[in-house]
C-alpha cells in the first residue's frame, strides 16, 4: 500500500501515482494505484493535528471543556483591520490546514479549472443592468470584458447633440481594485442634483467602509467622510448633507451622523444604546424623509427627518415594542405601514398621513390573513405594490390608490422567484419586476400598472448556451417528523434517471426568516449537467410558509430546522431521487450550522458535507457579548449567559459541542480571516475537534481565505473559483469526479 504522506510531499507524490511509467517494474503497484479513487488517494495524506489546550468553562451550573479555544485571537478586532497581526501559532495552524487542503484537492485542479470555465462561460462578461431613469439621466451598472468589478455609469435621457449622447463613468470598480487584494462597494448613490457621488469602500473584507465623495464634473474624489461606517448613507435633498452609519470597534452599527459634504466635522444624530439593535439609514420613496431605522431580529423602531430640512429634529413614528415590527412605504396617498402589530403573524398593512405618521394615526387597510405572508411594499404616487408568499410561492399584487382596486401578476411554473425594483421615479405608472426559476434565466420586465402590459427589458444571456427544456424543475412536499409539510425545490437534467441512482446535493439555510428563492443560478448547472440532482429544502426558520414557519424554527424550536433538513433528505430518498449515503449537504453561515447539526444527527444520510463560513460554535459565540452579532442575535438563538433553558437548547444542537465518536461523511469547511459575522475560529475549532473525534478516517478539510471576509473572494470571477473548488469536492465525495479527472489527466499527457 502507499504509505502515509506528509502535507509537503503530497502534491508531488500524488502526481507520481498517476504518472505514466511509475514503478514500471512493479505491475501490481501500477494496478493498485490505477484502481484507487480520488478519496482513497486523499486518505493517504496526513492531516494537521491541532494542539489541544483544554480550558474548562463553568456557566449557569453547567460545565464544558474547550480544547481549541486558543485559536481565537484575543486581538481579533485588530485582525479584522490588519490581518498581519494574527498570532503566529494561529497563523501557522491555518496555513497548515490550507496546505493540507491543497494537497488533497490537487488532483482535481484540472477539474476545478473546467468547472470554473463552465460557470464563467454562462456569464456575459460585458453584462449591464437595465438603466433606471432619474430626471435627466439614466443610471446603470455594467462590466467590461474580463472585468471583475462593476462600473457605475450614466447617460443623458434626451441628449440634444451627439456630443451629449455619451456615457459618463462615475465609478470604475476595476480601476479602484488595482493593487489591492479585496474590494467591496457599499452604497453607491448620486446626489439629488446629480453633481456628486457618494460611495462606500471596504478593502479588507471586515465590513468597515470608507465613505468617499466624488465630484462628477471633474471625476475626482474630494474627500472622505469616515473610514468607520457600514457603507450605509443617504443624501438630503440639498445635495450637500449626508447621513451615515457608524460601526463600533465590535463591528456593530450603532450611530447615525449628519455631515456636510465638504466638512471634516460630523454631528451625532442618533446613538443606539442597546447592543441588541442595529441602525440603518435610508430615504422614503417620494424623497420626503430621511429614515433612521433601528431593529433587533423581531423588533423595530423608525425615526424620520425632513429631507428638505436636514437639520430638523427627528420624528419618532412608534416606540419600540418587543416583537413588534413595522416599516413605512411612501405613496401619494400617505404612508403605508407593514406591521405585525396586534398579533398579525403574517403581517397586515395600515395607513397614516405623510405629515402625521405616528402610531396613533395608523388605520387598517389590508387585514392579516393567516398563511399569506406580506413580505414587502413598494410605493408610487398613485400605486402601492406588495409582494406576498403563500405555500412557498411568491406573487405580486398591485393596488390602485384612487379606486382601491387590486390585481395580481400571474405566473405559471411549478417553482419560481420574483423580485420588485423601486427605481428612482415616484410619479410613474411603470414598475419593474424580475422573474426566474431554477431552469429559466432571469427576465426583467417594465410593467404598466394601468394597462397591465409587460415590456421585456432584458433576458439573462447565457453565452455558452442554455436550453430550459433540458432541465426539469419539481416541487415536492416532504413530511416532517411532526406532520408538517416541507417544500423542496428540485432541479435535474432531463436525462438524469429518477430511480435512486443519482447523487444529490441538498442545500438549506433556515434561519433569521430568510427564505431561499427558487431562482436561476449558473453555478449548480455544473453539478446538474454531470448527473447530480440539486435540491433546496425550504425548512422552518425561513418564511417559506409564512412568518409562523420562521417562529417554529427559532429559539426553543430551533431543532425543527435540522429535523426538517433531514426529513427533506429522507423524502428525496423515498421518492427515488437519490439513495442514502449518496447526498452532499451544503449550506453557508447559519446554513453551515444546519450542515454541522445534520451530520451530527444523521451522518449516514450523506457522502459529503460542505459548510461554508459555518456558524458551528454556538454556545461559545452566544456567550461572548463582545462579538459583533452576539447581543443582536439573542432573540434568534437565546441568551445562554442568563437563561438556563436557552443554554440547554443550544447545547442540544450546537455542532461543535455535539461531535461524537461516530462515522461522519467527508467534510469541507471554509473560512475568511477577516469575517466579522462568523469568525474564522469557528470552522477552525470545529474541524480540529471533528478530525480528532470521528471514528472513521474520512476527510476533514478546511480552507481559509487569508485576505477576505464572510463573502469570500470579492471579484466576480475569483469567487467562482471558490465555488469550483467546492463543486470538485462534492463530485469527489459521490464518485462523479474520478473518471473525469482521469480523462483530463490523459488529455494533458
TrEMBL record:
Gene3D superfamilies: alpha/beta hydrolase, Prolyl oligopeptidase, N-terminal domain. The keyword Membrane does not apply. It comes from the Bacteria. Pfam families: Peptidase_S9, Peptidase_S9_N. PROSITE patterns: PRO_ENDOPEP_SER (PS00708), PROKAR_LIPOPROTEIN (PS51257). Keywords: Hydrolase, Protease, Serine protease, Signal. The keyword Signal applies. The lineage of its organism: Bacteria, Pseudomonadati, Pseudomonadota, Alphaproteobacteria, Maricaulales. InterPro entries: AB_hydrolase_fold, Pept_S9_AS, Pept_S9A_N, Peptidase_S9_cat, Peptidase_S9A, Serine_Peptidase_S9A. Residues 1-24 form the signal peptide. Residues 51-459 form the Peptidase S9A N-terminal domain. Residues 520-733 form the Peptidase S9 prolyl oligopeptidase catalytic domain. Belongs to the peptidase S9A family. This is S9 family peptidase.
Amino acid at each position: 500500500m502507499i504509505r502515509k504522506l506528509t502535507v509537503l510531499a503530497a502534491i508531488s507524490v500524488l502526481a507520481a501515482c498517476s504518472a505514466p511509467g511509475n514503478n514500471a517494474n512493479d505491475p501490481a503497484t501500477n494496478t493498485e494505484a490505477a484502481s484507487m479513487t480520488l478519496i482513497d488517494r486523499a486518505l493517504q495524506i496526513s492531516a494537521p493535528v491541532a494542539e489541544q489546550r483544554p480550558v474548562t468553562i463553568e456557566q449557569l451550573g453547567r460545565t464544558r471543556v474547550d480544547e481549541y479555544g486558543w485559536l481565537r485571537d484575543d486581538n481579533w478586532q485588530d485582525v479584522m483591520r490588519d490581518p498581519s497581526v494574527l498570532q503566529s501559532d494561529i497563523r501557522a495552524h491555518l496555513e497548515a490546514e490550507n496546505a493540507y487542503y491543497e494537497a488533497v484537492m490537487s488532483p482535481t485542479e484540472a477539474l476545478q479549472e473546467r468547472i470554473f470555465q463552465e460557470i464563467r462561460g454562462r456569464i456575459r462578461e460585458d453584462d449591464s443592468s437595465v438603466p433606471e431613469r432619474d430626471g435627466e439621466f439614466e443610471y446603470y451598472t455594467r462590466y467590461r470584458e474580463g472585468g471583475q468589478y462593476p462600473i457605475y455609469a450614466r447617460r443623458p435621457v434626451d441628449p440634444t447633440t451627439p456630443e451629449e449622447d455619451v456615457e459618463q463613468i462615475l465609478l470604475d470598480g476595476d480601476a479602484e481594485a488595482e493593487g489591492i487584494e479585496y474590494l467591496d462597494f457599499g452604497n453607491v448613490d448620486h446626489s439629488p442634483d446629480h453633481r456628486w457621488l457618494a460611495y462606500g469602500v471596504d478593502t479588507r473584507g471586515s465590513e468597515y467602509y470608507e465613505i468617499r465623495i466624488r465630484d462628477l464634473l471633474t471625476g475626482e474624489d474630494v474627500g472622505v467622510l469616515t473610514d468607520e461606517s457600514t457603507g450605509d448613507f443617504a443624501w438630503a435633498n440639498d445635495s450637500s448633507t449626508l447621513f451615515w452609519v457608524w460601526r463600533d470597534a465590535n463591528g456593530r452599527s450603532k450611530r447615525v451622523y449628519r455631515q456636510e459634504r465638504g466638512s471634516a466635522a460630523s454631528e451625532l444624530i442618533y446613538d443606539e444604546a442597546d447592543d441588541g439593535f442595529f441602525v440603518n439609514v435610508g430615504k422614503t420613496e417620494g424623497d420626503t424623509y430621511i429614515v433612521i431605522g433601528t431593529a433587533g431580529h423581531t423588533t423595530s423602531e423608525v425615526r424620520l427627518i425632513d429631507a428638505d430640512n436636514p437639520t430638523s429634529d427627528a420624528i419618532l413614528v412608534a416606540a419600540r415594542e418587543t416583537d413588534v415590527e413595522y416599516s413605512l412605504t411612501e405613496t401619494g396617498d400617505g404612508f403605508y405601514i407593514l406591521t405585525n402589530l396586534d398579533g398579525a403573524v403574517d403581517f397586515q398593512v395600515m395607513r397614516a398621513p405623510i405629515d402625521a405618521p405616528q402610531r396613533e394615526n395608523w388605520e387598517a387597510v389590508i387585514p392579516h390573513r393567516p398563511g399569506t405572508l406580506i413580505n414587502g411594499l413598494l410605493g408610487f404616487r398613485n400605486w402601492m405594490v406588495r409582494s406576498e408568499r403563500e405555500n412557498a410561492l411568491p406573487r405580486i399584487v398591485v393596488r390602485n390608490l384612487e379606486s382601491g382596486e387590486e390585481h395580481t401578476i400571474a405566473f405559471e411554473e411549478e417553482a419560481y422567484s420574483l423580485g420588485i425594483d423601486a427605481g428612482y421615479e415616484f410619479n410613474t405608472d411603470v414598475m419593474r419586476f424580475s422573474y426566474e426559476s431554477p431552469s429559466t434565466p432571469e427576465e426583467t420586465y417594465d410593467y404598466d400598472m394601468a394597462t397591465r402590459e409587460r415590456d421585456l427589458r432584458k433576458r439573462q444571456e447565457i453565452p455558452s448556451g442554455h436550453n430550459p427544456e433540458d432541465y426539469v424543475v419539481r416541487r415536492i412536499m416532504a413530511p416532517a417528523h411532526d406532520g408538517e409539510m416541507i417544500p423542496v425545490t428540485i432541479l435535474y437534467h432531463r436525462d438524469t434517471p429518477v430511480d435512486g441512482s443519482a447523487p444529490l446535493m441538498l442545500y438549506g439555510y433556515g434561519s433569521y426568516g430568510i427564505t431561499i428563492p427558487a431562482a436561476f443560478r449558473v453555478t449548480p448547472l455544473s453539478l446538474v449537467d454531470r448527473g447530480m440532482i440539486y435540491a433546496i429544502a425550504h425548512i422552518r426558520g425561513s418564511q417559506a410558509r409564512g412568518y409562523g414557519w420562521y417562529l417554529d424554527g427559532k429559539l426553543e424550536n430551533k431543532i425543527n430546522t435540522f429535523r426538517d433538513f433531514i426529513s427533506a433528505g429522507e423524502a428525496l430518498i423515498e421518492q427515488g431521487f437519490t439513495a442514502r449515503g449518496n447526498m452532499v449537504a451544503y449550506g453557508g453561515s447559519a446554513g453551515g450550522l444546519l450542515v454541522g447539526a445534520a451530520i451530527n444527527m444523521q451522518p449516514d444520510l450523506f457522502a459529503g458535507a460542505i459548510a461554508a463560513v459555518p456558524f458551528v460554535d454556538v454556545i461559545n459565540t452566544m456567550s461572548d457579548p463582545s462579538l459583533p452579532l452576539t447581543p443582536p442575535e439573542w432573540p434568534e438563538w437565546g441568551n445562554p449567559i442568563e437563561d438556563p433553558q436557552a443554554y440547554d437548547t443550544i447545547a442540544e444542537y450546537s455542532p461543535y459541542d455535539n461531535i461524537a465518536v461516530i462515522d461522519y461523511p467527508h467534510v469541507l469547511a471554509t473560512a475568511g480571516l477577516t469575517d466579522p459575522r462568523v469568525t474564522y475560529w469557528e470552522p477552525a475549532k470545529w474541524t480540529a475537534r471533528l478530525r480528532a473525534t470521528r471514528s472513521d478516517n474520512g476527510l476533514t478539510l478546511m480552507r481559509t481565505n487569508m485576505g477576505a471576509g464572510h463573502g469570500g473572494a470579492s471579484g466576480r470571477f475569483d469567487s467562482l473559483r471558490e465555488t469550483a473548488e467546492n463543486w470538485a469536492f462534492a463530485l469527489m465525495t459521490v464518485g462523479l469526479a474520478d473518471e473525469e479527472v482521469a480523462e483530463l489527466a490523459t488529455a494533458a499527457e
